[in-house]
Specification:
about 425 residues; alpha/beta; eight-stranded mixed β-sheet; 25 strands
């Protein structure tokens, strides 16, 4: 054996021995629910050693999302993301969940897709040494689950309605919520499932039944009336009223449901419009015409995606007022949520106009919550910020707005507000139990 070969083996042995001293932990457990925070800790480093932490997640369409940040160990060779500041990378400063909310797609204009909620999202956390030739020192996997122990998932095809029912553990009865996502996503279960973990019976409703926006020419409130009736009749649901959770296009559907249908006690409208958008809406002898877009108003950004914020017609213009939803008819409580950097449309303007209309009719049954620096897709906590993706209604890539850190903070805050709103206005006598993983 020559000297060079012996030296290489000694160096390899030393590197292996050193890295084996390093420990990467995800606490309180490597397994958690998707909306739960975790703490990432590192120990066994040299005093003040500089390292890089990386996170990687691959969604069900094989799109890779990545983030990274540089850290410096303390005098005892430890790093704790709950107190140690990131020196740079995808974020800086003390950001305990920064590796998660700052995840960005390798492929431009992609939103994280997760429709199979029975399996977790796997976030690979890796620790690397500094320098030109980075060596992996440790790694761990965070399993971020959606269904807590004891929660039941029931696919529903009842008459013409289509969706998924989530039942929390226990005898109940529990407050019931209809959850509707937005155009192009179809049936989305992530938010509904996570809300069921908190002690709600949640019906994730496909807004277009088994159809898609491409083969829908009009919408009928009778479909949504059937969904409300189905949920309210479930023995697990305790009345007297049902909650509605919506976002984007489903926001105006939620406002229409609240205005024309009975049995609704609390409605959350996230970045929705105060007018009926895209499709004529029918209910018995009433037809609300659609507020439409003007594609010529879209602006091409440097990213190659369109900014369509000012493409939608002004619902308050005299020629468009027939598209406005008569929310003064509603008996429920409203939570209007608006992202102030929403580039899909002017959510703040729509929320303020809805509140103004209720006030003009002598009503105070609403709250308005504004989130500066956040974009259109306000989702569940720690969902990576989607800055741009394909707009199903337009068929082109658009920017959604928002700055990642502010958007992440808004998602955490809003999630707590949604639960508190439903607890207060659905049935305060209900017993709310949080399910565990």
């Amino acid at each position: 054996m020559n000297f060079s070969s012996t030296l290489q083996k000694k160096v390899l042995f030393c590197a292996t021995s050193m890295s084996s001293q390093v420990r990467l932990q995800i606490l309180p457990s490597p397994k958690c629910l998707f909306d739960e925070p975790v703490t990432v800790k590192v120990e066994g480093l040299s005093a003040y050693q500089e390292v890089q932490l990386r996170a990687r997640l691959t969604d069900q369409k094989n799109v890779i999302f990545q983030s990274s940040a540089t850290y410096r160990a303390d005098v005892s060779g430890k790093i704790d993301l709950s107190s140690s500041p990131a020196l740079g990378g995808s974020f800086s400063g003390v950001e305990p969940m920064g590796l998660f909310w700052s995840l960005k797609p390798e492929t431009p204009h992609k939103k994280l897709v997760k429709k199979e909620i029975l399996t977790p999202c796997l976030v690979h956390i890796e620790l690397y040494s500094s320098g030109r030739q980075r060596e992996m020192l440790a790694k761990e996997i965070n399993e971020r689950h959606f269904m807590a122990e004891g929660v039941r998932r029931l696919p529903i095809k009842h008459g013409r309605i289509h969706g998924t029912l989530f039942l929390p553990p226990g005898k109940g009865p529990f407050p019931g919520v209809v959850d509707m996502y937005t155009v192009g996503v179809g049936l989305s279960e992530t938010r509904a499932c996570l809300l069921a973990n908190q002690g709600f019976v949640v019906f994730a409703l496909a807004p277009y039944g088994q159809g898609t926006p491409s083969n829908v020419s009009s919408l009928h409130l009778e479909y949504f009336e059937d969904a409300l009736s189905f949920l309210s009749r479930r023995p697990e649901v305790k009345g007297p009223g049902i909650g509605i959770l919506s976002i984007s296009k489903s926001g105006d559907l939620a406002l229409s449901m609240s205005s024309f249908l009975s049995g609704i006690s609390a409605t959350v409208c996230i970045n929705g419009c105060n007018a009926n958008v895209m499709f004529p809406l029918h209910y018995k002898d009433t037809v609300i015409p659609p507020l439409m877009f003007d594609a010529n108003r879209a602006v091409l950004t440097e990213s190659g995606a369109l900014d369509v914020k000012h493409s939608i017609w002004n619902p308050m213009a005299p020629e468009n007022r027939r598209t406005l939803i008569p929310i003064e008819r509603a008996d429920c409580r409203f939570l209007f949520v608006a992202a102030e950097d929403d580039r899909n449309w002017d959510s703040r303007f729509f929320a303020e106009q809805a509140a103004k209309r209720l006030t003009e009719y002598g009503k105070d049954n609403f709250e308005v919550v504004l989130y500066p620096g956040s974009g259109h897709y306000l989702d569940v906590p720690y969902m990576p910020h989607c800055f741009s993706s394909l707009h199903a209604a337009i068929g082109k890539y658009v920017v959604w707005g928002g700055e990642p850190k502010s958007h992440a903070e808004a998602q955490v805050d809003l999630w707590g507000k949604i639960q508190a709103f439903f607890r207060e206005h659905l049935d305060t006598a209900c017993s709310f139990g949080k399910a565990k993983l």
